Amino acid sequence: MVEIITEKLLAQILDLLEGESFRKASITFEVHDEGQCVLIYIPIDALPETELLSTFKRVAYRLNNLVPSREGDYSWYALFTRSGEIVESYFGGDASSPSSGL
Q1: What stretch of H or E contains 56?
Q2: How many C-beta atoms lie closer than 10 Å to residue 84's C-beta?
Q3: DSSP 69
Q4: Using an 8 Å Cβ cutoff, are 58 and 21 in contact?
Q5: How many other C-beta atoms lie within 10 A of the C-beta of residue 55?
Q6: Which residues have CB under 8 Å from 23's CB, separation 6+?
Q7: Each residue's pLDDT expressed in tens, for the chain with a length of 102 residues
Q8: Of 49, 57, 50, which is closest to residue 20 (Cα–Cα)?
Q9: What is the pTM of this model?
Q10: Number of other CB atoms surrounding residue 32 within 10 Å
C-alpha cells in the first residue's frame, strides 16, 4: 500500500495553515493506517470567537482539496483545540462520500 500522507504533504498542510494565520510550531500531526490518514491538531486559542466558524469551514475545504482521498474511509481529520481540548472537528477525504465531514 502506498502512503498518501507523506512528509511533503505534511509540509504543504503546515504551509496552508500558516496562510490561515496559524503558527506552524503549534500544529501537531498523528499519521495512522500505514500512512493513509492524518489527524491534524490545530490550536485556536488566539482566534477571535467571531471568526471561528468561517475559519473552520475554510480550512476544512482547503484541506479537502489538498489531501488525497481514499476509498471507504477518511484521509484527514482537522481537530481544532482550545487549551489542549478538542472543541470542533472536521474530516474528509473519503472518495465514496466526498462531502461528508464538511
Answers
A1: helix 52-66
A2: 8
A3: P
A4: no
A5: 19
A6: 43
A7: 789 999 999 999 999 999 998 999 999 999 999 999 999 999 999 888 888 999 999 999 999 999 999 999 999 999 999 999 999 999 999 999 887 877
A8: 57
A9: 0.94
A10: 12
